[in-house]
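Subgroup meeting minutes
Present: P.N., E.W., G.H.
Scribe: E.W.

1. P.N. recapped why we're keeping a running log of single-chain structure predictions: easier to compare across weeks, and new members can see raw inputs and outputs side by side.
2. G.H. added today's entry (160 aa).
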Amino acid sequence: MGVLITIVGLWLALATGAKSVAAPRFEDFPSEVADKPASAQLRGPDLDSHPLAKRYRTILRRGAAGEANFAGHFNAIRIGCGSSCAFLAIVNRSTGRVYFPAELGVLSWAEWPADTYGYTFRADSRMIRACGDPKESGHPGCYYYEWSGSSARLLAKQSQ
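Output recorded in log:
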């Protein structure tokens, strides 16, 4: 019930044109699947599951080799694209499927004034926080997304 109230409140704030809302908390979006030990569940990235996967095969393999670090049974992997930008790849440890969520895109923080920047996520949560300038849109802030298992949905934005 508390999560529903939080989501409705965020939606109302966004719908009414509020520029900044309270930040969602990682705890409000718990993982539904707990990770098994790495040796029992790990499946390497399926490089045929996304057109970009073969291009980034080395970093995907390295990033997926450790324990799950996102949403219970996923590995979120930051891929750098310069000195102050990155994009995110997500590997499903159960199936090997690779995702490059278009909703997130490249995140730049060259002009970001805060100490917290880039992508942040947790093993026990489905939420992703992206602080910087997404897709170099000229609209910097902290953006909060919920991972559905195959895509990311914007929850809220905090302007800087």
